[in-house]
Amino acid sequence: MKIDSFESNKLLAALNKGCYKTAAAETRRALSLMEEWFARRFDAAGATEKDGWIYSALSSGGKRLRPMLVRLAAGFGRPDEARIVRLMCAIELIHSASLVHDDIVDRSPLRRSRATINAEKGDGYAAMCGFAMIGEALALLEDADADAVIDVVAKIPMEMCFGELRQLEIEFDLKAQDEEDYCKRIERKTAVLIKGSCLTGALAAGAGQRVVSALSDYGHALGILFQLRDDLLDCEQIPTDGKPISQDMERGIYSLPILYALTQLREGTREGEKLRAALRKRVKSPAEIRALAEIAADTGGIDYARAAIARQQGRAGDALSRLPANEYTEALTILLDTLAAAPNARGESEKTAPVRFANEKRRYGYDGS
Ligand code: FPP
Ligand code: MG
């Protein structure tokens, strides 16, 4: 089964470089088993219409980042392959279900360049598909035989809903939206699942407590970094994942670059009032959205978000340095550096200070060059 996403290939290609051969091969094999399970369950003879829609949501070229993390984290213990693959399927089902529901909330017509279920079949139908996917995920965990894994997974959809509900509550409310609120929201809507992928992979494979704790911290920082980067690209109007750009800005949801601009152009000043009036507008033209993105750049908001990404990269790197020096740790470092290298406004990948070299130096006493 082919994994047809550019970013997934990029992540796997990054893993294949260097000395991560076993980790990369295991990850590739486990991902392929996951794809086979999806095809057997949702695309085989006898599949119903709803199975077809679920399969379409699952197979539209996602990055497979979360199941990759499950498998790599499991490398720190003694994984039972079949059980880990079921966990990977469950985590990816929850992730895809959250996107199906997110597209309803966002009224989005497109995801990964495909028409969304809500656009084709209506909101009610799409909502039911999302719930069915969560049910499928929980059913897969029936025999996970680790209460700790079930405890973590069971709380993930709840946390994600809380993050999304908060987002709905504060649309266009410029008083409620600040950096602190934004960080809490992205922690819930994105980081909880990415952290949960690392945590459950390690727990399911019976990894030791110190390793579990380091992987959990790594996943948390990587999750925050991931959403910061996604929001930064959106604010810079760089298209990603075949979805419409700047939807959040239109809906009155503001990310870090704009929130920073608000702190620089204060209420009561001419520029500050102009910015607030532009943000409060319920309908924004593409030119008005571009103008807001320019204000974010001119006031230093883009640089501020990039610095926040670098800080999370550092935190994730610190967590990695608490792990044993093995190729799973190296592979997780590569994923971190690949995801932290957000393209700039021209779509070029920025050179960030790779954590890999810093950690290699610490471990092996050379600078990796
Ligand atoms: C994409 O973010 C969406 C999320 C990270 C999570 C959305 C969560 C829910 C809808 C709650 C329901 C959860 C479950 C498990 C059913 P984004 O909107 O910032 O990114 P986008 O540009 O990809 O839409
Ligand atoms: Mg969205």
Protein structure class: mainly alpha
- The number of distinct β-strands equals 2
Main β sheet profile: 2 strands, antiparallel
Percent helix, as a range, is over 70%
The unreliable regions are: 1-6, 345-369
Shape: globular
Oligomerization status of the protein chains: single chain
Number of helices, counting only DSSP H or I runs of 4 residues or more: 17
Give structural notes:
The protein is an all-alpha fold. The protein is 70% helix and 1% strand. The chain has helices at residues 6-16, 21-42, 49-58, 65-74, 81-105, 117-121, 123-140, 147-169, 179-204, 209-235, 247-250, 256-264, 270-280, 286-298, 301-321, 327-340, 355-364; strands spanning 110-111, 114-115. A two-stranded antiparallel ribbon has the order 1-2. Mean pLDDT is 87; it is low at 1-6 and 345-369. Residues 102, 106 line the site of magnesium ion (MG). The site of farnesyl diphosphate has 17 residues, from α5, α7, α8 and α9.
